[in-house]
Structures are given as structure tokens and as C-alpha cells.
Amino acid sequence: MSRPTPLPTAVPESVGIPSDAIEAFLRKILDKRLYMHSVLLVRHGKLICECYWKPFNRDRKHRMYSTSKSFVSAAIGILIGEEKLSLDATIAELFPEWVPENPSPWTLEATVRDLLRMSTHISRISYCDTCPDWGKSFVQYPVSHKPGQVFRYDTSATTTLNILVHKLTGMEFTEFLREKLFIPAGMNDDIWCVETPCGHEWGGSGVQATPQDLAKFALVCMNGGRWNGQQLIPEDYIRAATSRQIDNSLLNTAHEEQQGYGYQFWRMTHNAFATLGMGSQCAICVPDRDLVLVFTGDTQGQPFALQNITDALWDTVYPALSDMPLKDNPAAYDSLTTYTSTRELLCVEGALSSPMSALVSGSTYRMTENDLGWTSLRFDFDGDRALLRYNNGTGAHEILFGIGRNIPQAFTETQYYDRRIGVPAGYGLECHASAAWVEDRSLLTRVWITDTCFGNLKMQFTFDGDTVTMLADKNAEWFLQGYHGFASGSRA
Amino acid sequence: MKFEFPMTTPEAVGIPSAAVERFLMRLENKRLPMHSILMLRRGKLVFETYRKPFDVNRKHRLYSTSKSFVSVAIGILIGDGKLALDDLVTKFFPDLVPEDLHPYTAAATIRDLLMMATPHLRNDSCTYTPQKPDWAASYFQTLPTHLPGKIFSYDTTATMMLSIIVKRITGVEFTEFLRDRLFIPAGMSEDIRCIETPCGHEWGGSGVLATPRDLMKFAYTCMNGGVINGQQLIPADYIKAATSKQIDNTFTAGDYEHTFGYGYQFWRTRHNGFACRGMGAQLAICLPDQDFILVTTGDTQAIPSATCVIYEALWAEIYPYLEKYVSLPENPDACAKACARWDGQEIIHVEGAVTSPMAEKISGVTYRSSGNELNFTSLCVTLNGDTGTLAWTNATGAHTLPFGIGKQAGSRFPETHYYGSRIGTPAGYGYDCVTSAAWVTDSTLHLVCYAIDDYIGTLRMEINFEDNTATVQSTKFAEWFFDEYYGLATLEA
User: Fold this and answer.
1) Is A304 in Cβ contact with B475 (below 8 Å)?
2) Residue A464 domain-assigned?
3) Is residue A4 part of a domain?
4) Buried residues in A82-92 as b, exposed as e (16+ CB within 10 A)
């Protein structure tokens, strides 16, 4: 295994950005309580801000969710450059074995280009987590309209494309990209991808890479496909892929996401393009100002996170950009580096103690029949820790919450997917749990799943006399099922 | 004589007109389809603008801002001694309460409903649907999930019940009750009205129709301890409690601006403020410490972040000037410029090219299909300079809709089965609407229709033309109408 080459660093002022504008940007993100894991800023190829919220760090890979799609696009572009594929090739001729009998003409018409720009012939995603063969499901899914006409975001299009990479090269797409892109661009050579039930990589969602890996990928895409003079992605392809190929303003509801779509890349205001992944795994490239912003997080459940972050970018850093180096400002730079080196995963905000904790600690509550399937719960409070024990449909469980801080642990359910969708991990995913009193009688809790997948579970418990009432909800794809709903109970 | 706020300039109350203009520009930059903006400070109206066809006299559906009106009616009844916060809800419905009522439902009080802590889980809908004949009965018939009063969970069912309780106590619907007690003495429109439930009650959770100035007078009365024009119209202690944090609402909030707590049918905001909040950006944001109120109306249902955009614009552009109170020198030019920015303008139209090489090839061509998920059997776009007509046939018949290109065209939407003054009962007429279109690519025409009737909603449609085909993708942002306009279809010439 070769070590990745770190991006060269610089003081922000030396590349024309005031340090205090970057700190203002970061503080705006905090002001919206966005659950960030990293923020990186790169200008003129120099890393000028690298901020991780502990326990996240430079070396830790992060699930990229739909930012993965842009990696698949790069693999397709390289294959086109090698003349192994063309944009106009049809999916039906590439996968003849999957074409159903008496196919619709629209199934036969769909091309690689149609899939790249999310204009397929189907109206919804063709697979689910329990479907055995995702590639086949796409080719055989009932048609609803002519392909290539209208934008309709669909991860099954990307998944079909990355299965196509395997068909043409005999390698899964991250293996294909290893020699072609990852190693020459100084990225980690062990970037990997969560698998589909059929054992292919899940290119639409599964890439695991570091924020610096993503920053390097973004720089290659913004620099015409080149890195250190090497042409890694064909220039004409990556220019087309990051340009507006189709209008996408109809179904999207946020202004920044209505600026058009390329080949698995988004267009944004300020002539920017971006890779966008669920939960804020993003790279925003502003070629006109030679600026790249990369961030990761888990903002699932915060629907306006992308807008908040782009607003902050356009309001703080962007207007402060200078074409010339600025005078050093050591005080501002010190302030910025102090800020970036002291970030921690946010915990639940509220009072750290309540008269209620002594009244309920150690009591077992029997729950009346409820949608959550919980039969009992008990809290034990001890200083800045609260241990929750509960029984639900999958057995007896414990979660240890820090009060005013996060406590790392393995999540108590072991049936969630890990490296392959559809296959239970058999162990508890890594998580961080915190709690605080939002009313004297009411404890709010949060669990952050921070493993090969990301998601969050929130629960609120209100104690009154001998009763407890709880509400649970989750923001997570294909796990934490069942943690949704109300329950009440009484002291046993 | 009817009470009106005195008017003055933004500068007179310490706000630069240029800041007001920047506030408007922030909303424009996010393409928010706003209908009105009003700002009041120290009891004086300092800014007021409407986008055509809305104007100072036109009533606007207030959606959930209606809830705060119901709260005030409840508060007045409490002041009259007709009702107490701790009264059980069941007390007012002896005829509807089943004998085997679940203890959780039986325990719910007026206060629990006011602070949105009912015993039901609101999953996909309230306890009622448009098809249910008796909405109050639905509340008692729906199985509860938990003890009431413990956890905030926003549910319009609560307000619907409160407005029916007003009727049961007073014998009149809540807007009629408020007419003499609030609307007339506060100088509000006497003919403020409310959409009805299928059972003929006013739908207090959503249905109020009033002018933006009515909403401003309402908000001012609430912020001013229940007093307007020297009259105590709402009990001071009630309105103080109603606009204070009664329950934490962090759990359900998707964004930080809505985590500041909930009162009695009022939201809490940053900076010790409170707000009435209705779907589509029907807002009254009150900052008592700064003696400032912002009122907005619009149709931002297609832009879920709109309320946050408005908050952000308020905090970034206006709030910094509210932290102290110093009159600024008058600036008539800046003031006129801010006023002129929206005055006389139409609701924002679709952005794009007015024409395309495709236009003459497709204009007047009829495309047909034998079946698709949108149920369109024919479609024809006719273009004529900067206007056009969309004609189509679906399950309800053959329809036409005129549109402007780079401008709005007013008409009545050609479906007549959407609800009118009562939910569940077809209006029998088409909703008043404005429609615009533009070419967003050489081959794609994008069309947006805003319903601006007693119901507010957005229909968006794109049509891509290629090789004798027209592919339509349609979506809608509206409650209980435009429902048949969601889906995809390819039609052939």
C-alpha cells in the first residue's frame, strides 16, 4: 500500500483569501447547527483550511453517498477515452442478456449518455435493498416514457453504469480507477465501495474515501482531467461532464440544485459544478476563481444544509477572494487554526442536569403496546452519563449517552448492513451518543451512526409523575428501521 | 373610523431603505414567488409592497397562520371565564365521545391541544381526510399512541378541534366570534372568512382568508400585550403565555430556525421573537424587544427552504439596524427605489429564452398517446410571440391554459372539481391562476402555473420535444388539488 500524497498547504492570505472570511464561513455553519465532519478549502491547488470535527480526522475514510456517482462518471469517461465505449452506445446492446422478450422501443433506445445525465426511461428507482440483481432490474424495469428527454434523478442509472465498467474491464470501478486515477492523483490506493446484493460495487452511493481524496478528485475534474501534467480523465469528456447537459429545475426545489446537471455532476450558481452526496458529502468547484470546497457530515434530517453551506460560501469566502496575495494576518490566521483544531461532533444542546434525573434514575417503566415494539425502558443517571436499557422486538439493548458530550460505542443492534447491502453485519455499527434536558421533565437524545454508513437516531423522553412518554425517529437509509413513533409507559 | 397604522419611512425608524431593498433582493435571488412584504416598527408601517395581481385589498389564504387566530379566540374565551386551559377536550363533545374512549384521548386538555401535544401520532395525515364527513368525530375515533401533553408533535387536528370548541361554546364559528371582539375594533377587515370542513365548521387550522394588513394588525395586537388602538382585545396574560415557549420543539425541527420552542399555536424564533407561520410563506414574525414586525405572503410551497431564506434575510439585512433605535436621515431616493422594486411587478415568472428553433416546428402540432402515468391522451402547444396556449386531454376532459412567455397570463385553471368554500365539495369553477413559460433548453419548454384563489398552489410542467415526440414531466406543490398533474408521459405526433 502506498501512502497518499498530502495536498500542499498554504496560509490563506498567500492565495488571496482572508483567514477571517474562512472563520466567518465556519461560524455560519455552526450558527445553523449543521452536523459537519470535515471542511476543506483549496485554492490555486493549495490546501488552506482543513477542519475535522473529532473523532473525524485526515486519515479516516468517509462514506461519500451520491458523490460516488461522479467517480463512476470519471470511470466511464476514461473508458470512452480508451474507445471501449461511446456515449451513444445503448444499454440494450451492452447488456443483451438482460433485455426482456418483446422489449419496449424505449428500453432499446436508452444510451450511456441518457443514464449519465439522469434521463432514463423509468420513473422510479429499479431496485430495493432486498432485490437480488440490481443491474438486471434496471434493464427490465417497466418503461414510463422516452429516454433522454427529461431529468429524473435515479441512482439505478449510476449503478447500471458501474456494472457496465465491470463488464467492459473485468474490474469493479474502484479497482479500475486505482491505477488510472487514484494512485497517479496521490489519492488513497485503498478507496473502496459498498457492494450491491449481487456483489458488484454500488457506484451510486458506496464510495469510501477521505476528504482529501475527494479534494484531489475535484481538482482533477476542475483542471481539465489533469494532475501534475498527467492527463487522467479525457479533457473533452470531463469538460462535458461538468457542464450543463440537461435542465433539472422542474423537480428540484432548492435554487442551487436547479442550475442544470452534467454527466453525474451538478451545476451550481457562480458557474460552479459539484458532486453532491446525501448528508453533505460534497465537493463544490468554482473554476472561475480556482477554488474547491469539500465537506463531509451527517446532515440527514437537515434538509437545508446544502443551501446553508452554499449561502455561507457565497456570503463570506467568495466575495473576499482576491486575485493577488494578501498581506499576512497572523492574528486572524491563529484564530482560524484555533477554531479548526478544536471542533468536535456536535452533541445535544440543553441543560446538563434536571431535578427529574434523581426521580427517575433506576426505575423500570413498563410500556403499553406501541408501534416501536418497546416493552420496557430504564434510565440510570450517573454524573454526565445516562445509561438507557430497553427491550424491543430484537431483544434487550443498552445505549450509553454522554450528557453534554458524545460517548463512542458500538450500536446495540447488529442486523444492519455493512460492506454488502442485504447482508447483516453481525456486529454493532460504530456510533456516538449524547443527551441533554430540553425541559426539566424532558430528555432529548441523539445517536450518530459513524461507520460504513451514516445515520442518526433521535429520541425524546418526557417524565411526568409515574409515567414516561417517548418519541423516536431516524434519518438513515435502510437501517434503524422501527425507531419511529410514540410510546407511553408507567413505573413498574 | 377604521383603525389604520400611521405610515412613515424606514429611515424614520432606523432602517436604511437600501437594507429593505437588499432584503427583497435576497428573496429574489432564491426565486421565491412572494406576494407581499410588510414591515412595521414602533406601530408605524414603514414598508409595504405587493406583487400583481395581489394588492392591499385582496384577501390571501393564510394557511397555518390561521392557527394563531384560533388561539386568540380561545384566549378571549378563557378571559370571559367560558373555558380553562385545564379543561378536558371531552367536556365539549359529549355527543361524540365513545363510551370506551382510550384513557390517553380522555386525558387531553385544551392546553395540550394549544401546545401541539395531542395523543395521536401524525404520520401521513391528520386524524381527518377530505373524504371523512365529521372531522371532530375522527379525533375521537383515531387510536391514540401516547399520553397527551408530553411531547410536541405538530398536528393541525389540534387546531381543528379548538376551532370547533369555540363554536360549541359561543354558538358561532370562530371568525364570527372574533369579528366583534377583535377584527372590527382592531381595524381589520370585517369580512375575514374561513374555508369550511366537510361537516360545515370553519377549518381553523388552515382556512383563514385575510389581507396582509389584517395579519399585521393581528400580529401587532399579539405583540402589544393584546392591546391595539387603546383597547385590550386579548387578555394580556393569555397572549403573553401564548407567545412564550410552552414546549420544546427541537425534536421535529429540520432546521435550526424552528428549534426555539412553541407556545399556544405560535412559534418562537431567535432573538426572543415569536411568529405565526403558514404553508407557502404566510408569515408574521414579531420581535417584541425591537418593536418590529415582518409580514409576508406568497406561494413558496415548491421551495421548502423559503421560510429559512426569509429568516436569513431578516437577520442579515434588517436585524442589525434594529439593535438600537436611532432615526436615520431621510433618503427619498433610496426609499423610492426600495418601493419601486416590487410595486406593480407580477409574481415571478419562469426564466429562460422567449423562443427556440423548436418553437415553429411544434406550435400547433397535436401529440397523442394511448396510455401513460399522467393520463394525458393529447397535448398541443400553440405559440404566438410572447404568449401561448397549452391544450391537453386527460381523464377530466379537454382543457386549455393560456400562458405568457417572460410574463404572466391570468386565467382560470380548467379543472372545476377542486374544493371551493368547503373541503370535500367541488367548487364548480376553475381557480384563479397565473401562468408563465419559457424555453429552458432549445428543446424544453418549462411552464409554471400558480393558483392564486382561496387555495394557493404551484403546478410545474416541462415538455421536451424531439423526433415527433413530446415528453411531459409534471409535478405539483399544492394541498388536495392539482393531484392528477404528477407524472411522466411521452406522446407522439
Assistant:
1) no
2) yes
3) no
4) eeebebeebbb
Which CATH number fits the domain that encloses residue A265? 3.40.710.10
Look at residues A340, A370, A403 and tell me which one is the last residue of a structural domain.
A340
Chain B interface, best mutation among A261, A304, A349, A484, by max B CB count within 10 A: A304
DSSP B449: E
User: Are A227 and A307 found together in one domain?
Assistant: yes
Of A340, A367, A400, the last residue of a domain is A340
From A175, A260, A248, A224, select the one nearest A77 (Cα to Cα). A224
Q: Which domain holds residue A217?
A: 12-340
Our CA-based measurement puts residue B146 at a distance from the nearest CA of chain A, in whole angstroms, of 5
Any domain includes A348: no
ipTM above 0.90, yes or no: yes
Check whether residue A331 and residue A361 sit in a common domain: no
Residue with the three cell numbers 399522467: B374
How many domains is chain A partitioned into structurally?
Answer: 2
A235 and A106 share a domain? yes
CATH of residue A480's domain is 2.40.128.20
B114 touches chain A (CB under 8 A): no
- Residues B260/B269, Cβ–Cβ less than 8 Å: yes
- Closest in A33, A249, A469 to B146, CB measured: A469
Instruction: Note the pLDDT tens digit of each residue in A426-438.
Output: 999 999 999 999 9
A281 and A360 in a single domain? The answer is no
Same domain assignment for residues A327 and A374: no
pTM above 0.95, yes or no: yes
Cell of A182: 487514484
Predicted confidence (pLDDT) per residue in B199-243, tens digit: 999 999 999 999 999 999 999 999 999 999 999 999 999 999 999
CB atoms within 10 A of CB B384: 11
Burial of A462 (0-12, 13-18, 19+ CB in 10 A): buried
**Could you tell me where the DSSP H helices lie in A32-85?**
68-81
Same domain, residue pair A455 and A391: yes
Q: Which amino acid is at A246?
A: I
Show the cell assigned to A335: 484564530
Residue B475's nearest CA partner among B452, B453, B446, B454 is B446
Phi, psi of A213, rounded to the nearest 5 degrees: -55, -45
CA–CA dist B6, A490 (Å, integer): 57
Q: Report the pLDDT value the prediction gives residue B207, as an integer from 0 to 100.
A: 97
A106 and A237 together in one domain: yes
Please give the single-letter amino acid code of residue A52.
Y
Q: Is residue A253 part of a domain?
A: yes
Query: How far is Cα A80 from Cα A42, in angstroms, rounded to an integer?
Result: 29
Q: What is the pLDDT of residues A286-338, one digit of tens each?
A: 999 999 999 999 999 999 999 999 999 999 999 999 999 999 999 999 999 99
Does A270 lie in the same domain as A232?
yes
Distance from CA of B356 to the nearest CA of A (A): 15
> Residue B249: helix, strand or coil by DSSP?
coil
